[in-house]
Amino acid sequence: MGNSDQGKSFFNNVPLAPPDPIFHLTASYEKDTTPKRINLGVGAYRDDMGQPWVLPVVRKARQLLLEDPALTHEYLPIAGLPALRDASIRLILGKDSPAIREKRTIAIQTISGTGANTLGAAFLAQFHPVRTVLVSNPTWVNHKGIFGNAGFDVKEYTYFDSKTLGLDLEGMLSSLNSAPEGSVIILHACAHNPTGVDPTQEQWIKIADVMEAKGHFPLFDCAYQGFASGDLDKDAWAVRYFVHDRKLECFIAQSYAKNFGLYGERCGALTVVTQTSDLADRCLSQLSKIARVNYSNPPAFGARIVSRVLNDPELYTTWTNDLRTMSGRIIQMRTLLREHLIKLGTPGNWDHITRQIGMFSFTGLKPAQVSLLQSKYHIYMTSNGRVSMAGLNTNNVEYMAKAVDDVVRSTE
Fold first, then answer.
1. 53, 140, 319, 350: which is the annotated catalytic residue?
2. Which residues pair with 322 in a beta bridge?
3. Backbone angles phi and psi of 83, in degrees to 5
4. Active-site residue among 60, 198, 258, 350?
5. Residues 66-112 pLDDT 10s
6. Catalytic: 96?
């Protein structure tokens, strides 16, 4: 095509999309050659040396797979690896779940948690009668895009209280009460992303009261089971309360990226709880149909690793120890950061750092302070002050505290 024809290209109508904020932040960090730079943007676990950590249990399971002469690279079924699907249901609902005994639940393997949300959105766009979805303010950046692309009217419900740096329960309940009856409500099962603020069990009960009264449909996004507190059952409490105590139907988007460290293997599941076994079977058939035309069938290797661990009692025990290692280090970093800030006499109250849970913390830092941290101290985080606690370690947490102390004082 000559230069005279370039103006006729169809692609002239394609605008340049803005860069993804998280991956753009990581790219900026990678270009920075300063030795003391810190990346607090990416949501991936790092050990105390700041390096990616392959879980010991993953190493064991991987080796077992490689030594298995029966291992092939054939397609998985459309719905995924059966052993993984069944184990995913047991993991989130508990092995003694009445919903499992009554065969009212199914799971379909997905391309990690993002895929689970996307598959759920596509299904609800076809079959759910209400076109309104509510996400927390703030929420994981992909929630709005996923449900907006599926054709939903995406609104927000009040969640974070910027004054207390905790949960605004009354605002949340008011938002849910004001939403159109039967709306889809995206709930974070544990370790809320990005704030690290979770409801207490008593608060979850009040949330369930409104959900049930308004006929809202809950979709739990569960990306951090076991990673938040180190206790798989504790992190699943809210989901199990909705399903077992309140008898509510729901979707649960599960991810094995964080709690297995399998970020690049893209392994997850969408678990569905219905009122009857017949309805569960219908849901699986339609979800499989959607999966078939989108990606045909899911990737196998990560699924086989997770399945091997979840279905082997010895490996499962090793995994729970690995989870305590990761969650324990995160809790330690929260404690150390708060202690350093208190020791420095940094203006403000920093108790929220240890009250919050999971990988992320909403620090309360303002955009101008975040910008100064990046330009002066080479500390990278999102502009809303969210930090990944996994980016801190015993070698840099004091540096981080001193930098925060400086920018807070200089911008007061």
1. 140
2. none
3. -65, -35
4. 258
5. 999 999 999 999 999 999 999 999 999 999 999 999 999 999 999 99
6. no
